[in-house]
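ok, trying the design again with the full structure, not the truncated one.
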């Protein structure tokens, strides 16, 4: 079977699908991942096929847009700058990879393209939801999605219908122009009919993190977190020495995609000095890191979290689903400072599990210092994290479960394809 994957985004958006792709390859399938050139090297190191949907310069330009990290503008900015101008290229890239035995797997950004290919050519499609906030449930509304969590269920249901109509107005005109050019009819109720494939949706998280709700579109299969690290090398000697010479540090990261976290990292340094804690700052962009760090604060561009976090006291981060999953697997407390997208909902779920604290921002002040000290000192938080760690599964188990489900979806929905010559 040939598996063609289409997805875009930061490392947290891509790594779970890399884990699933590796599991599929180990089961003997041919894999091609269609995404930005920035991921060419890690995909090829895995021995998987790669097809480009954009340049590194385009990737960097998208992340440089500050509106991408503002909660009120993030989703529409991602749509207008990351999807609309590049949809046709994604479509053409995928079409070049299709064979008679292809199954298409799409993340949320590519779901509209994947849905059009499924309708027009009969290619089985599995959509992949990385975070629970993808499922806009009136039963258990995700935080940060514009639904009134405080309202009774009938009002939440009305609000969800209104949100779906708003999504149709914003996304519908452009999406339906794309579909018209392919000879497909226009769509309404776009959220349910594009994000979730009739062939099935994979929810790449466990039920203890997000219990399925009766108003989630069917069929949906929860797999657990298919944890994956882009680089699995050992920690570098300087980092090893830093960890060995003192107390366990606190790790600060704003995510691999963030380019506007200067205030976050400045506050991190100030809080570490206030509390006397040691720290590690992680960021792909060195321009966000204060100059002349003191000896007890270390900066690294990238470190495999699976190897680093078990040796640390706590993690302060943005709430991306990949980072959140790694912290839960490591069993350490989390202080989450959400910026946009699914981060607010992930933070709320961590708080409900008693594994972390959510704040609007960190600052160089006594209140933030007290919160950080509580995070590292609370025995109840630490025990809750260890208890939940014991419930988790290795990422390879979740990845294999997802791979087996994709295989089954391909077998169940195989048909005579109407591929162009």
């Amino acid at each position: 079977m040939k598996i063609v994957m289409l997805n875009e985004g930061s490392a947290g958006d891509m790594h779970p699908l890399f884990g699933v792709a590796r599991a599929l390859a180990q089961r003997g399938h041919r894999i091609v991942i269609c995404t930005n050139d920035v991921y060419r090297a890690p995909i090829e190191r895995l021995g998987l096929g790669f097809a480009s949907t954009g340049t590194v310069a385009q990737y960097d330009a998208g992340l440089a847009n500050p509106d991408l990290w503002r909660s009120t503008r993030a989703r529409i900015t991602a749509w207008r700058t990351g999807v609309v101008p590049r949809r046709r290229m994604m479509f053409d890239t995928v079409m070049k990879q299709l064979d008679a035995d292809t199954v298409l797997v799409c993340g949320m950004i590519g779901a509209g393209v994947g849905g059009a290919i499924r309708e027009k050519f009969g290619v089985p499609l599995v959509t992949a939801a990385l975070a629970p906030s993808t499922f806009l449930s009136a039963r258990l509304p995700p935080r940060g999605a514009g639904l009134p969590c405080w309202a009774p269920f009938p009002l939440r249901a009305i609000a969800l219908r209104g949100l779906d109509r708003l999504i149709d107005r914003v996304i519908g005109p452009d999406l339906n122009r794309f579909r018209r050019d392919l000879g497909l009819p226009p769509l309404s109720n776009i959220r349910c009919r594009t994000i979730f494939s009739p062939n099935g949706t994979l929810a790449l998280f466990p039920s203890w993190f997000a219990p399925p709700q009766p108003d989630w579109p069917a069929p949906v299969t929860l797999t657990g977190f298919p944890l994956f690290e882009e680089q699995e090398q050992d920690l570098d000697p300087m980092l090893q020495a830093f960890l060995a010479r003192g107390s366990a540090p606190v790790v600060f990261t704003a995510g691999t995609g963030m380019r506007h976290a200067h205030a976050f990292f400045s506050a991190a340094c100030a809080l570490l000095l206030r509390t006397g804690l040691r720290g590690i700052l992680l960021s792909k962009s060195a321009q966000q890191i204060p100059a002349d760090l003191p000896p007890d604060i270390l900066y690294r561009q990238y470190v495999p979290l699976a190897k680093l976090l078990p040796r640390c006291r706590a993690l302060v981060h943005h709430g991306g689903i990949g980072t959140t999953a790694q912290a839960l697997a490591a069993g350490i407390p989390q202080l989450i400072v959400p910026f946009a997208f699914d981060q607010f909902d992930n933070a709320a779920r961590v708080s409900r599990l008693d594994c972390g604290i959510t704040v609007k921002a960190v600052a160089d002040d006594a209140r933030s210092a007290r919160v950080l000290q509580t995070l590292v000192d609370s025995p109840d938080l630490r025990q809750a994290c260890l208890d939940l760690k014991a419930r988790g599964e290795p990422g390879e188990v979740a990845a294999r479960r997802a791979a087996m489900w994709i295989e089954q979806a391909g077998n169940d929905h195989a048909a005579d394809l109407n591929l162009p010559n």
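Keeping the full-length input from now on. Residues 284 and 370 are 28 Å apart (CA to CA).
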